[in-house]
Amino acid sequence: MSQTQTIQLGTRTTGLWSKLKVTIARRTEGRGVALLSAVLIGVLLTEQTVFTAYSVTLSRIALVGLVALGLTVVILMGELDLSVASTLALAGVVTASIPDLGLGILAGLAVGVVVGLVNAFLVAVIGINSFIATLGMLFFLRGLALVISNEAPIKLNNVEAGIAFGQPLLGPITPRILVFILVFIGLQIFIARIRVGREFLAVGGNRQAARDAGIPVKRRIFTGFIISGVVAAGAGVMNTLERTAADPIAGSTVLLASFAAAIIGGNYLKGGRGSVVGTLIGAASLGIIQVALTLAAVQVPIQQIFIGLLLLVAVTTDPNNLRAVISSIRTLRTGRGKVVEPATSNRSTSS
Amino acid sequence: MGDPLTQVNALATSEAPKKEVSTGAKVLAWMADNGIFVLTAVLIAVAVIGVEGFASLQNIADVFHRAAPIGIVAVGMTFVVISGNYLDLSVVAQVATSAVILIAVSNEYGYVPAILAAMVAAAVFGIVNGVAVGYFKANAVIVTLSTTYIGLGLLRFFSGGSIFFGPYESPLASFGAGKLGPVPYSALVLVAMTVLLGLLLSRTNFGFTVRSFGVNERATRLGGTNTGLVIIGAFLVTAFSAMIAGFVLAAFSNTAVSSMSTGYDFRALAAIIVGGTSVFGGKGSVPRTLLGVVFVSVLTNVLVLLNISFGYQQMALGFLIATAVSIDALARRAGKK
């Protein structure tokens, strides 16, 4: 049985080892796993407090990772949602400015739905590039948050509920960590097991083929942007509850951290490849690094440089991009006349 | 002969089967091309008639004075946008870095080392962005987002986040306050940069390659151009413009701090897009960006004169970008059908 399979896969060696190799080659989380292992070893050797104070580390990972999880769904489709940072701020401000807490939370989440709808409309119906459309939204929503809050932080009306929200439910599990785990499990099942979710990958891999196969591409784009909007809004609502106040300019560092988590986790920015698990691994690495750097009393600017460098390295060392780079270097070396196929070889590897 | 690029376009369209273009598509295309002229004229007319305090020589000189740093950034960033790489977010870090370097280093060692150091910083920014985007084919938005944080982090670390003051009487301060008749020097720098970069984009081989890269990246590469170098060039032009903008900004206030250029990325992009340069690449020009700068600056000035808060100004700019890009996208699609 293994023989027929290996023949189909076209590998040279046979047996379990080759199967394992194929499985590994298919996964996208390689760099994330490498970084996480390196970080874990480094932290074990230098700063064990990160593990003994694991409740702090866990809540940090949940803080970094939640927005990144929502973002992953959009990135898998080959789009990008830069507006998450201000969606987070706006949802927080809306929640705090409504006196009734339950109604406020609902309104905050509704902000996420509306933002997702507008983003998807600009991208799918009008046909604007999602980078520019969501960048416009990023600033529009920040303006809106400033207008609603009168350019000052708003105090939450129901402070007791906010304080209760920060308390652990079970062991180190605070409501924030619980929400993070639930969102992760939900999105993982949605993307990996449910047909609609799997179609997101098809939309990102080859949009025309997806359309020809009968996948409602526009509807999937709407769903994706709504998911990312609602998750970002949820993060904003939780921030407001935990801090018992809403900051209209919150979320500027969230943008960098959540993109770094998703990209380190191996999600390909042009879509079609990646996984929610990868984002979790990326978020875990980043969260642990941040906690370790803070515990080691490293200044905030240095932490910024560190995470910026990580993102820069992650985005430039994408395996697909590297293949293109290597082939172009080969072209330079062998001379332009001889090599004809780099463009086609690019296409065949990006399946 | 005419412009070679338009000839190529004309060739491409003549081969495609000709179809009737609907009036709606014509209107959209006209709006995408000429909307900015009408908009600017209407805005200025309304401001002159309706807004008290706008039509004074003092105020108009002030508008241009404030527009200069953002305008210089915008005319430079036009190169990145036309090459089809969306934008350079790291101009925020670049402007602040050059301003801080100019004042901090010149206080210690004089102007020549300060300018040289700022040029080195600008070259590093441009080359890092350009190599990552041009050779590693990484997404420009994410690359420049990360270089923004790296740059600002380095700046905050080395400056300690403190504000640097220039000496009370210095050539820099007198340049920042200086005027030629009613025109502030900073506005003259903006005009000079527009002419220089306009010629670079429309009259030189480099500018032609940047534009053709935005039209069709693959064709440009197969045509034998080293596309990586072109992208590095586009990011270098942006970086050096941002450096000069930093100088102008430092001269203007005679102080420098790492947070002084917050929002420049976005306002520059707004000016470029409103001016009619397409985010899809290939279409646009430097003088158009200057017009966009005038529009955005006059709009901001009017909103300030009317006592409208900063939040509404941000909303207006975000809305403007979304609308301008939508019109461009719809016009493109209608033209293709």
Looking at CATH, which topology of chain B would you report?
A: ABC transporter involved in vitamin B12 uptake, BtuC
**What's the end-to-end separation of chain A, in Å?**
26 Å
Q: How much of the residues of chain B is beta strand, in percent?
A: under 5%
Give the C-level CATH assignment of chain A: Mainly Alpha
Kindly report the oligomeric state of this protein: heterodimer
List how many beta strands of chain B DSSP finds: 4
Number of β-strand runs of chain A: 2
Q: Architecture of chain A in CATH?
A: Orthogonal Bundle
The low-confidence parts of chain A are 1-8, 338-351
> In what order do the strands lie side by side in the largest sheet of chain B?
1-4
Mean pLDDT of chain A: 83
**Overall form of chain B:** globular
Ends distance of chain B: 29 Å
Mind telling me the CATH class of chain B?
Answer: Mainly Alpha
Question: What structural class results from the helix and strand content of chain A?
Answer: mainly alpha
Main sheet of chain A, how many strands, which sense, barrel?
2 strands, antiparallel
How would you characterize the overall build of this protein?
The complex is a heterodimer of chains A (351) and B (337). Chain A is an all-alpha fold and 351 residues long. Chain A has a single domain, classed as ABC transporter involved in vitamin B12 uptake, BtuC. Chain A has helices at residues 2-9, 16-26, 30-46, 49-52, 54-76, 84-97, 101-126, 130-149, 159-166, 175-192, 195-205, 207-212, 217-243, 252-264, 276-295, 300-316, 319-334, 342-349, and strands at 154-155, 245-246. In chain A, strands 1-2 form a two-stranded antiparallel sheet. In chain A, helix 6 (84-97) packs antiparallel against helix 7 (101-126). Chain A is globular. Chain B is mainly alpha-helical and 337 residues long. Chain B has one domain (37-336): ABC transporter involved in vitamin B12 uptake, BtuC (Orthogonal Bundle), CATH 1.10.3470. In chain B, 76% of the residues lie in helices and 2% in strands. Chain B is built from 14 helices and four strands. In chain B, the strands form two sheets. A two-stranded antiparallel sheet of chain B has the order 1-4. Chain B has a two-stranded antiparallel ribbon with strand order 2-3. In chain B, helix 3 (57-82) packs across helix 9 (205-215), helix 5 packs antiparallel against helix 11 (227-253) and helix 7 crosses helix 11. The interface between A and B is large, with 55 and 53 residues.
